Write the structure tokens for this entry.
Amino acid sequence: MSNYIIGIGGTGAKSIEAIIQLTSIGLFGEQSLKLLFVDTDETNGNVNRALKSLDIYNKCYKLGLQGKHPWMKTAIESFSRPWSPFDDIDNVANKNLAVIFKYNLIKQNEPALGNLFDVLYTSKEREASLDVGFRGRPSIGAAVMSQVISQVKMDTNDNDFWGNLMRQIQQDAGGGKRPKIFLCGSIFGGTGASGLPTIGRLIHSELETLGIREKVDLGCLFVLPYFSFTPEENGEEVYARSEQFLLNTEAALRYYGSRPQEFDVVYLLGNQQLSPVKKFSIGRNTQCNDPHFIELYAALAGREFLLTPPAAEKKVVLMNRENQGTLTWEDIPDMQKVNAEMVKATRFAFAWLSNIAPELKKARDLGEKKFRIRVGTSWFVKFFPAPKGISGGGNRLGVDFNDAEQQEAMEKITDWCEDYLRWLEHIHESSGENIQLFHKEYIKNLKDDNLANLIFEQGDSRGQDKKSQDTIQKLKESLKPKDIDPPKLGTIGLAKSLYHVCRLTD
Amino acid sequence: MKPREKIRIIVLIIIGGMAMFLWQKLVYENQIVPIQQIPVDAWLTSNYNTAAIFMFLASTIPTLIWCISAARSRFNDGAATPRWRLLWWLLGIIPMVTIAIAVFYINRSSEAQLSLIFFFLLDAIWLYWLPTATSSPEGVKYIPPLAFLLRYKLLGDFID
């Protein structure tokens, strides 16, 4: 059985990116995840980045790093490619409102309806190409989505995107399991605001048609405005305007509040301060905004939904942080568990990138034999044993450092560490926010000596004595193949052992 | 340093001390290496004992300096390798120079010179090279010459 996560629009994709990162460090249990991206803009940078993170994770997951710790334990699959509402509209070469709604035909045949269309949409909005998405305009998105939904079939006999999804959910529910579907997106932009409720409604109806609605949990996350931007002068007139976000949100919340709820659980997540995005983009691959701490919460909301058994009756749960503008470990839900896994993973990624990976590279450059007899390299011998006996006579346990398999594994683990720390660093750089989880300057400049002080005090209960002994050298000296599950040697053994010793002990 | 490394060093030093102050002395006392130009007992008391004490200290002190300084240092990466190799050899010069001093200045018997060079060389190897090659702290454990061969290939102590 799987849990299903559907990310709609740019914010949905960014939330999924955060979910991938937290899944990789073991915060989403062992139930496999199936990810679906919904975006009108198939080249959207946020979607591409999330897909890249997924690819990096999956390569690492397949290495077999599973062991005592929940790290790399959850299988994640993505449906082949992001689904675009335009996939289900036939013969649309020029994607704009006028073409989709056959504006010219309406104007000719039903002038009154055509005039209404003129009132609702300016000529620029009618003609604006939607290849780049709904341009942050819920009014455009809602119109297109409702038009699309009228054509979308979720027939389980179909082999298309939604047909496959519904068939899998039906199979899961039929097998006595209780699948969960989590939708996430923004409430204030284009694709998310218009797509999330529409797709939610569509799934809800189809589940009812299949007679399995009661066997499936359907949850969603609406992300309220949390960023702003200043558009550049580029001649385009139809684009998202952050000054309208709050207005859009207020209208959307009022509308959804008045409607019957299709969702079993609804999460709303927002921030008082809108963080300015570094570079405004109307869409496509340049729309790639840095991760924000709100997305960490989005992932934690998804975690809460997927891991918590459904409540007997609906309830409203509120949480907020202690101090506006500051985020500490105390503000993190299920802090103990989240802290333990984030700390382990972050220390691992730090130690791997700052020391182990460069040392392994040195071993490649110098050759195993010369590298072994350098200072501080006894850890290397434990995981890449040299032939035993004076005369050698072959590798004792069949692990060859120079093997392509070993080298590839190193690259994959390095890629994952870089990707995880990249995400974590951006989370800490959310503009106007003081994020006190990890010291961002240490994540940015990976220096061995900073290991002990990587975590903010609230998340690190160790005494000063213990901290002063927390060095990369000590970590490496405590690496022991016997402490981990097989495989104990080679790159995998080394990574598993390092992960094990990166946990904080009192 | 691990307890077994400390124990190994202590055992090697005790055995080395016993070799110097008991067994080697017996070799001269029993005239296995004949010393006839001066009275053996007087030579053993005034020359050999002094030379042996010097040699013992000159071999064990560098061993302790090596181990203590290595145990107190940080080895995040291998960048310090040349420095530690140099230190090992510099410390190794101390017993070598002491052999020369002990044999040619403290010892007054020309008959004992060759045998003393041989014994003290063995003592230096036993008290400096062997402890450092078998029992150096983790960070520098493979720095002394042939330490990898001895410690990993023969003793096989890589599994903790």
